Amino acid sequence: MTRNNPPRPSGKSGGSGKSAKAGKASKPGQVARPRWGAKPARPAATDRDGFTAQTAPLAPGEEPAKPVREPKGPGASKAERPRKQAVRPPKVLRTAKPVAKAVKAPAAPRVPAGDPLVGERYEVEVGAVAHGGGHCVARHEGRVLFVRHALPGERVIAQVTEGTTKSRFLRADAVEILEAAKDRIAPPCPFAGPGRCGGCDWQHVTPGGQRKLKVAVLTEQLAKLAGLTPAEAGWDGSVEPVGGKLPAGEVPAWRSRVQYAVDPASGKVGLRKHRSHEIQPIDRCLIAAEGVTELGIEARDWPGITSIDAVAATGSSDRQIILTPAPGAQLPLVELDKPVSISRIDEHDNFHRVHGRTFVREVAAGRTWRVSNGGFWQIHPEAPDTLVDAVLDGLDPQWGENALDLYCGVGLFAGALADRVGEDGAVLGIESSKQAVVDARHNLAALDNVRIEHDKVESLLPRTGITSTDLIVLDPPRAGAGRETVAHLAGLEARRIAYVACDPAALARDLAFFREGGYRPVSLRAFDLFPMTHHFECVAILEPIAE
């Protein structure tokens, strides 16, 4: 099998005329490139904006390097000569100038056909839990109802919240429990329940009962979309608790990032109701991390603000709030209980610093990570270490191996892989968020065996020239990687692939695509990183199917 280099600069290092050893920096200021084989050196790989690892934009608050002046004549000194850098991307990586697109007028809202059934009540027997939304399936007179606040096996009075006489299915809330399941408890949160806060799905379920529901969802999706039993997927049939098991009635304060909505009339904060723009006022969110709660956001009025993102970093004292003001409104003068950095989002979704830093510092996997405004980071404090450990245990990276980290975010998995493969190995990360790429390059600047590129995975990966690799990690968005990307990855003949998934349906679909490409799961673990909600995280390890 052939392993091609991602493009990197050619030329001689230093003034000795000797070639630098591949993958090593040969003089001060020269950044080493990851090595992907013994192919001849090629021009530096650039992202779709024309940036190399050395020419990427600086993060907010960073001091720019002093500009290097061009030599003005043959007598210019060495100090004035510009450092050798590839600044013009190869043709294959050049991006065309943006073309203005016609703006379509918004479509008129669709009016459901049939007579409305909202408010109607039916007595139903509750069936199995369904994927997404925290609801269970019930039937009434041949019509399917997706019922929230219910549990499998219960008999309830379901009140319709969405649907008409012509709807294929109805949405409903269980407003009266006639026969309760053994895993039902009184919701610890006073704002949980039908027609109230939509932040949690399963406040009415014991922690163990919540994990049983998640097991049922994953089992069904694997069977329906991938044709796999738990044993065939390498899964022991459990969803692992993270942070220790809790007794019934106790709520873990795990959510380190909370998005509050603000009532425009009163300025009071709350959380939105399920599938609604209506706001449920709250004075405390039980699942919010202590660092979020201690800011005292719920105790203040926020006139002129439409939403507040509150962030409490793990491993540092960094706290941040991001305000979205109403159009034309000024920021209110509010005194909080703890020191906090403040940013705002304008009407074009651009971030602006108001006070303090534009990022927080998270500590995980032996490093401190800068995560800027709007950047992705797991919201459970123990999630980063839990997922990194699962990925490394499954891949078992070896010294000198090459790895891809796709949808790499701020570089969490890339950093962990780089430590394992060492200076004789290489890691290439690809991420579509510009700011996340800036953060990742900052976070991993000390590692010579890592390169982070900015582009969509499906766009850049085919242009890297890489035809094989040893290891792959992919952590795609909720929709999954998709057939085309999976087919390309399967063609790289990796020894092992780690798939980190936040949606069991997308995971199952992509596992089916990997099977078409000659890969099968040998291990699957599920983690309860989002207690009180229907969400959970999975890590699947895949290997080539033996011939």
UniProtKB/TrEMBL annotation:
Record has Transit peptide as a keyword: no
Residue ranges annotated for the TRAM domain, each copy included: 115-176
Biased composition, class Basic and acidic residues, residue ranges: 63-83
Gene3D superfamilies the UniProt entry points to: 2.40.50.1070, Nucleic acid-binding proteins, Vaccinia Virus protein VP39
One of the Pfam families matching this protein, by short name: PCMT
Record InterPro entries: MeTrfase_TrmA_CS, NA-bd_OB-fold, SAM-dependent_MTases_sf, TRAM_dom, U5_MeTrfase_fam
Keywords: Methyltransferase, S-adenosyl-L-methionine, Transferase
Entry binding sites for S-adenosyl-L-methionine: 378, 407, 431, 475
Gene Ontology biological-process entries: rRNA base methylation
Active site residues of this protein: 502 (nucleophile)
Annotated region described as Disordered, given as residue ranges: 1-108
UniProt feature, compositional bias: Low complexity: 18-27, 96-108
Listed GO MF terms: rRNA (uridine-C5-)-methyltransferase activity
Family under the similarity heading: Belongs to the class I-like SAM-binding methyltransferase superfamily. RNA M5U methyltransferase family.
PANTHER family: RNA M5U METHYLTRANSFERASE, TRNA (URACIL(54)-C(5))-METHYLTRANSFERASE
Protein name stated in the entry: tRNA/tmRNA/rRNA uracil-C5-methylase (TrmA/RlmC/RlmD family)
Annotated source species: Kitasatospora atroaurantiaca
